[in-house]
Design goal:
This protein is α/β, with parallel strands linked by helices. About 30% of the residues lie in helices and about 25% in strands. The chain starts with 14 loop residues before the first helix and ends in a 58-residue tail after the last helix.
Length: about 775
């Protein structure tokens, strides 16, 4: 890339430095003459081969990162003997090579291995050499070297390579040689440049998803967390705790995912956490104090600073552009919610004019999607929007349609993506970052007032954040940089020769494309959104459901799911399950077969609402699969009733039915929303029709008539028999004699041994009523 051109500004060295160098040359001339005649190689003439058979040198600290003219440079580190034999008379020396030629020169120098006297320069030597005890195989020793800056021999301003070597005698060697060396860079700029580079550093506060879509049914709608891992992140020693603590004292532009703020804010009150056993049980959350402390620290840190709010939950813009057709409407809502969330929690108004695709990789479709929600700036990276210039161009450049691409410098943005837990790696990364910024500032062809942007990894580790902070602290003197915020960088005057052509869709990096959310994910997101829309239509307090589930759907599209396909699928499934459970709380109660007798009747259907809120705008439709046999509402095959049910109640809805013929009829009950969309599963049941026809009525009437006639005949027969069996009055019978008072024989034996009672008369089944009057308060049945 021409961006890495080899140009720098030249400054005259002080006369005393030239005098000191001349004296040094005269002093070592006799030694050089003696070495010419010697058969042994000069010290350092044979560079040590890199590998397991050498001595490993690593640097722990370089203090200060940017040397000052009258200061002292202190370098500390560790040496490890990786040879198979001992190293005798080991010594640690510093080497300062010539200035490195531009940004590409820094890249080439960083890749060098072994010791090269011409490139690494002679050892500072003398009293600044550190002598160590002999090193047995596998033994390590720490060292510290302190040298006045004036002894390092810096000349013109520029980037110098600093080498730290260990020399000694290894087994089988008859002379001293350099057995190991580590290199880093020292930016040397004693005076403040008139043409400083304006630098913008983004400081991202982004995390993965921690909140589920579940909320309690209580009035506070208590949120449910997957686990307590966020509490570890926001603790003072955690990743996000360190980001806030470090960023507070740095000239950075904060880039915040509002979902993180909302999640931590939810932790400041009562919340629940899944118990981790795979079930639905939850336990109370206990990190309210940590959440309150983190939010308070962040609110203090961002006061009077520029804050960029990403769309809610940091959606994966590339996945949306390439696979998310049909879900783009959520992006506008996520942007609107973002501004409100930040303003409510941090009490500052953020900028929502910036979109940030993954790794700053853009193509025409990503730009279109990124700006569809109202953002007119896209944060890209220079390895995506490449320039053909002999210098590093300004970040801002218009790319058409009123959109400005803010192109972050790729080298600087990726400077701290390695393992910064290793103090040696961290030190090298910091020094290289500082060297690159100075090399940019010294490019002669660059226009005055250039503005460059650094967009680091989205979620830096704690050690990466600490390394980033050390690098920015190294620029605190502002000798060649001037810190500005992202809004100022976006408004800077663009370079006329900078690339403004957006890459095509086919040029999107395949490595990144493979990590996008799959098509299936967006199909599930669309289904979940449709279910939510239908459900909230019937609710009287829809925000209790719409808000948490809308935010959950936003999280389903988060950039943080890249590379975590199984976790993303599990989260989407959890959202669908929770929403489906709520939808199922409004349902039809199953019915078994019912029997309908007669020509007309009513068919009841029960709808149950187990939600804590009322529902309305529902329609219950009942249909018959055989309208000729059983019709509804005056001859129709279907009938509808509007439904309104209080929370926690059921409602029985009755439909008028008319039977036209006997037999079984299958009925289908189905709930619909007011706009005609299906709600929940259908419920089917069977109605058995038993209609009473005229023929049946005639048979019944005939039977009744026969029974009446039989009764009349039996009564007549009994009456005639009674008349025949009654004896005539005899002459010897006197009234008032031994017979009945009414002059008749008592029933019983008539003297001939015959019972004159009626054998067919049944025995009375009731007792004579009592002649006593009823007592007070006693109920007498009549």
């Amino acid at each position: 890339m021409a961006e890495a051109a080899d140009f720098r500004r030249m400054t005259p060295a002080p006369a005393r430095r030239w005098l000191r160098r001349a004296v040094c040359v005269l002093a070592v001339a006799p030694m050089i003459v003696g070495l010419i005649g010697s058969s042994a190689p000069a010290a350092g003439a044979a560079p040590a081969a890199s590998g397991p058979s050498t001595v490993d040198v690593s640097l722990t600290t370089v203090t200060p990162s940017v040397p000052e003219e009258d200061g002292t440079l202190t370098v500390s580190g560790t040496v490890v003997n990786k040879t198979k034999g001992p190293v005798t008379s080991p010594e640690v020396d510093l080497h300062v090579g010539p200035p490195v030629n531009g940004r590409t020169g820094i890249d080439r120098a960083a890749k060098r291995t072994g010791y090269d006297r011409a490139a690494d320069g002679p050892a500072v030597g003398g009293k600044y050499t550190v002598k160590l005890p002999s090193l047995a195989p596998g033994i390590s020793r720490d060292f510290t070297v302190s040298v006045p800056v004036e002894e390092l021999g810096f000349g013109e301003a520029g980037v110098y390579q600093l080498g730290v070597s260990l020399s000694g005698r290894s087994r089988g060697s008859s002379y001293r040689q350099v057995l190991g060396i580590e290199r880093t860079f020292l930016p040397w700029q004693p005076d403040t440049l008139e043409k400083r580079t304006r630098l913008t550093y983004l400081w991202p506060l982004i995390s993965s998803t921690h909140l589920t879509s579940e909320v309690g049914s209580d009035e506070q709608r208590t949120p449910v967390f997957e686990d307590e891992s966020l509490a570890k992140e926001i603790a003072p020693e955690g990743r996000l705790g360190q980001m806030v603590a470090l960023g507070r004292g740095l000239p950075v532009t904060w880039v915040i995912d509002p979902d993180l703020l909302a999640t931590v804010d939810a932790m400041t009150r009562n919340y629940r956490v899944k118990d981790g056993k795979g079930g639905e049980e939850t336990v109370p959350g206990r990190n309210q104090a940590v959440a309150k402390q983190w939010l308070s620290s962040l609110e203090t840190a961002v006061q009077n600073r520029k804050v960029i709010a990403l769309p809610y939950a940091d959606p994966d813009l590339a996945s949306l552009a390439h696979r998310g057709t049909g879900t783009l409407g959520r992006l506008a809502d996520a942007t609107e919610v973002a501004s409100l969330t930040v303003e409510t929690i941090l009490h500052i108004k953020p900028s929502v004019d910036f979109a940030w695709p993954v790794d700053g990789a853009i193509d025409s479709s990503i730009v279109k999607v990124a700006t569809s929600a109202g953002a007119d700036h896209v944060i890209a990276r220079s390895d995506s929007l490449r320039d053909d210039l002999p210098y590093t161009a300004s970040a801002a450049r218009p790319i058409g349609g009123g959109t400005t691409a803010v192109v972050a410098d790729a080298r600087l943005s990726k400077a701290f993506e390695g393992n910064m837990l290793d103090s040696g790696e961290s030190t090298l990364a910091v020094q290289r970052f500082l060297a690159q910024t100075l090399a940019v500032a010294l490019q002669d062809e660059a226009p005055a007032g250039r503005s460059i942007v650094v967009a680091p990894q989205r979620m830096p580790t704690t050690s990466q954040a600490q390394s980033m902070a050390r690098a920015l602290q190294g620029l605190a003197g502002q000798r060649w940089t001037q810190q500005i915020d992202l809004l100022a960088a976006a408004d800077a005057r663009p370079d006329s020769g900078a690339n403004r052509r957006t890459p095509s869709v086919s040029q999107y990096p395949e490595k990144l494309r493979k990590r996008e959310l799959p098509d299936r994910a967006f199909e599930e997101i669309r289904d979940t959104q449709e279910t939510l829309d239908n459900f909230t239509l019937i609710l009287t307090a829809r925000d209790r459901v719409e808000t948490p589930f809308s935010r959950a759907i936003d999280r389903e599209m988060s950039t943080s799911w890249r590379g975590q396909q199984q976790a993303a699928e599990a989260y989407r499934a959890g959202v669908r399950t929770t929403l489906g459970r709520l939808v199922g709380e409004v349902q039809l109660i199953e019915k078994s077969q019912i029997t309908l007798s007669g020509r007309s009747a009513t068919i009841p259907v029960t709808v149950q609402n187990r939600l804590v809120q009322d529902v309305d705008r529902l329609v219950l439709r009942l249909s018959s699969d055989n309208g000729a046999r059983l019709s509804l509402d005056g001859g129709k095959g279907t009938a509808e009733r509007p439904i309104e049910i209080k929370g926690g109640h059921s409602q029985s809805v009755k439909f008028d039915a008319k039977a036209n013929a006997n037999g079984q009829v299958r009925m289908t009950a189905q709930l619909y929303t007011e706009d005609g969309k299906l709600y929940g599963p259908a419920m089917q049941f069977t109605v058995k029709v038993s209609e009473a026809t005229p023929t049946v009525l005639l048979v019944i009437a005939g039977g009744v008539l026969l029974l009446v006639l039989a009764g009349v005949r039996m009564y007549s027969q009994r009456k005639r028999a009674a008349a025949r069996n009654t004896p005539a009055d005899g002459p010897g019978t006197e009234p008032g004699g031994d017979g009945d008072p009414d002059g008749t024989e008592p029933p019983g034996d008539g003297g001939d041994g015959t019972d004159h009672g009626q054998p067919s008369d049944p025995t009375p089944d009731t007792r004579r009523e009592s002649g006593d009057g009823s007592r007070a308060g006693e109920k007498v049945d009549r």
